[in-house]
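Fig. S4 source data, part A: sequence.
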Amino acid sequence: MHGSRKILSLALVQLLFLSKFANPYLKFTNIKCSSLDKSYVVFQKCRLTVPKREQIAMSIYAKLLKLPVVNASVNLSLFKKASGFRPFLYNVSANFCEFMEHRKRFPFLEIFFDALLKESNINHTCPFNHDIIVKDMILQEKMFRRIPVPPGDYMFQLLVAAFNDWKADVKAYFTIRLNRDDH
């Protein structure tokens, strides 16, 4: 085996072993929303709140200034912190309207958006004739059952485009620990 494949294989075996015995502790640590085209989208809310002890919830309100949205693309990447944030396993792009019609074709996006869609108003196919709202999304262990990752600090980056032009950049930072006492 090549060196990087061997390391990845060992990491996956370790993950599978640990996932059988560990109950990971997950929480958001930060969020950053950036409008890349202020004539198209403005973030009126982009923050984390504490709805109850030991829970951090993410809320986003994106005001869309050019409706309806009939052509949208997304790029979702996962990064792991290691001397800065480095790409980690996934970087997937797709036509969002097509994804919403055929979600099983895009497994990584489906895992991410399954969690997001339950807490948002983007749970339908195009066109979108309204602002985008995510309210009180909380990370839960079941979100990571299909993509087990080792403990550490991570970032999801979601880039959103319309008509092949990037419009928004959302970075959600989170941590995974084997228990609440790990630091």
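Fig. S4 source data, part B ends here. The helical segments are 3-21, 96-101, 107-118.
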